[in-house]
Design goal:
Elements (H helix, E strand, L loop, with lengths): L2 E2 L2 H23 L4 E7 L3 H17 L2 E7 L5 H12 L6 E4 L9 H7 L11 H8 L8 H13 L7 E5 L6 H10 L3 E5 L6 H6 L3 E4 L17 E4 L3 E5 L2 E5 L4 H4 L5 E2 L6 H21 L1
Parallel strand pairs: 1-11, 2-3, 2-4, 5-6, 5-7, 7-8, 8-11
Antiparallel strand pairs: 9-10
Helix pairs in contact: 1-10, 2-10, 6-7, 6-10
């Protein structure tokens, strides 16, 4: 049976580091690192995410400001708000909760956030810095995955890693971070031939494809480490249940270590968002 990689426990350790850094910044500069969260519309999942982020920020001592906008908000109005947050020295991180309503251009919104306040790590300048190995604000979910991986493999050098999924939010930055850690990296996706065989060659599999229980035990070599980024709601006996992109029950029988869903990558994403907020504040104050 695989070792469980406990995201709740590891995220609590990260949040302790965040709280310590908040106190250091407060003592040195009399300033509280502050995150501005922008939520447009009434998407239920987004409301839950924002509520959890604000709750964890409060627990770690990070300041938080919420801006809730109507679903029919215009591009100009959203851009104006972001511009004001960019120019507010009391705001150190800006997060615009995605997805946005259809009349809003997500790429334009992401590019309008100042790179130094882009705590999601999605701005093109931060993406380019990550790809070229320069210091930057790194996307929260891949960053959290790396912290979890290092709990199992302090030295990742030489490991064969397969990332299943090629999104800009998880798949591509995950691959870049694994490359920086000296892994041999393959990105698998919907057009990959013999994808099961590709995964079976991996020491590490990161599943970020957005399909419930897509990867089963036949894809995993015995002893491999599996990081499940997926969060999918399915019906089981008339009840809604959250499952990952990995068939946990079967894969846990062959993997060496695995993250559960829920309680795995999810808590780490929020912890790394707050870690990025303190890093952004430290950079802006230096």
């Amino acid at each position: 049976m695989a070792q469980f990689i406990d995201g709740k426990q590891i995220s609590a350790q990260v949040l302790q580091e965040v709280a310590s850094e908040v106190e250091s910044i407060r003592a040195e500069h009399d300033i509280v690192p502050t995150l501005a969260v922008v939520l447009v519309g009434e998407d239920p999942a987004s409301q839950v995410y924002v509520r959890n982020k604000v709750k964890r920020a409060t627990e770690a001592g990070v300041g938080s400001i919420e801006h809730r906008l109507d679903a029919d908000t215009t591009q100009d109005a959203l851009n104006e708000l972001i511009d004001s947050l960019n120019n507010d020295p009391g705001v150190h991180g800006i997060l615009v909760q995605l997805p946005l309503p259809p009349q809003l251009d997500e790429d334009e919104v992401i590019a309008s956030i100042h790179p130094d306040k882009d705590v999601d790590g999605f701005h093109p300048l931060n993406v380019g810095a990550l790809a070229s190995g320069r210091p930057s604000l790194v996307p929260c979910t891949p960053q959290g995955c790396m912290i979890m991986l290092r709990q199992v493999h302090p030295d990742l050098s030489g490991k064969n890693a397969v990332v299943v999924g090629r999104s800009n939010i998880v798949g591509k930055p995950m691959a870049a971070l694994l490359l920086q850690a000296n892994c041999t990296v393959t990105i698998a996706h919907s057009r990959t031939k013999n994808i099961e065989a590709v995964c079976r060659n991996a020491d590490i599999v990161v599943a970020a494809v957005g399909r419930a229980k897509f990867i089963d035990a036949d894809w995993i070599t015995p002893g491999a480490t599996v990081i499940d980024v997926g969060i999918n709601a399915i019906d089981v006996d008339g009840k809604r249940k959250l499952v990952g992109d990995v068939d946990f029950e079967s894969v846990a029988q062959v993997a060496g270590a695995i993250t559960p869903v829920p309680g795995g990558v999810g808590p780490m994403t929020i912890a790394c968002l707050l870690l990025n907020t303190t890093r952004a504040a430290r950079h802006q104050l230096s």
